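Hi L.,

You mentioned the student needs an example of a multi-chain input paired with its predicted structure. This one should do, with 358 residues in total across all chains.
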Amino acid sequence: MLEFKVNGQLRRVDVHPDTPLLWVVREQLGLTGTKFGCGIARCGACTLHVDGSPVRSCSFPVSAAPGHEITTIEGLSNDVSHPLQRAWIAEQVPQCGYCQSGMLMTAAALVRLRPKPTDEEIDFAMTNLCRCGTYPRVRSAIKRATGQAEGRG
Amino acid sequence: MMFGKAQTRNVPALAAVCLLALLVASANPGAAGQTRPPPSESREAGLQAWAGIARVLRHPRCMNCHTTTNFPRQGDDRHPHVNLVRRGLDGHGVPGQMCSTCHQTENNESSGVPGTPNWHLAPLSMAWEGLSDADLCRVLTDPKKNGGMDLAKLEEHIEHDPIVAYGWNPGANRKPIPGSRADLIQLMKTWSRAGAPCPSRTASR
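Structure written out for the whole complex:
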């Protein structure tokens, strides 16, 4: 039995220790906002936070979770009030939306350390893949959320 | 609007590394001119051992993170790391995309992503790309560049640091460093016993 905090709550799971955290949060804990994309830590759809830092959960064994605080998209805020969530809505960022929870979690990790990120900082942080090509709107939303308003991308 | 206080999980690890560097430096004052026992191996044997060590250091498993660039490389063809991965200020990546975003403390069999504790780029002072055997030797033995390590600490690093062990256990379909870690340790000991000689710059490629 493994025990760790997810979105502020202590959770216990009985799974094989090598199970990727992605599948534990989705299947054991029912937090399906975190998505499976590539399974090789490349696309970023599965990004969540471990102690506030972004982690590709498809490549993070659940055995490494005890002792750490996990935050999924469901825990970013409980009422869609996070500045990035509000900006994402204002800028109408998502198209199909599949990659957007990972995008938001990466963006949240970025602005936590860089409250006013430059274009270059956004480029090197936001490497999540989006087949709808929402990248310009992602940038606009990050700028909006960090008080660096710019026109819609 | 408020965001959380800036911090990363890598800060304690980095602080520990820095502290270790300071301790090593203070325990070995003037480590460049460190007190070495008289050589018990010939210079020729030492230089021969060094050539073997240099071959290991040039392997992609080592060199991919000892780059002169602001990014790591990957693969046996040493291509720039995908996903625009960047060195960052401390060699652990940049906010939003740290090394630890993908690399954990062990190789991950399901994703194929390699891992070992404290995955990071070597500092630019330890960039090895493009160096001749002679210059590589001088960089490796310069405490101002190698984090304050004397020969004993270098041997310890080779023998015990998990990030070195990774070279022989890279996971997935990556080629491990030829030979064994024990072979490298033996070469290090021979080189060290010979007084850690470096080839002359004219003799080296």
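You could point out the following to them. Chain A touches chain B at residues 18, 20, 39-42, 47, 50-56, 58-61, 64, 83, 106-115, 117, 121, 123-127, 145-147 (CB under 8 Å). The longest helix of chain A spans residues 100-113.

Best wishes,
N.
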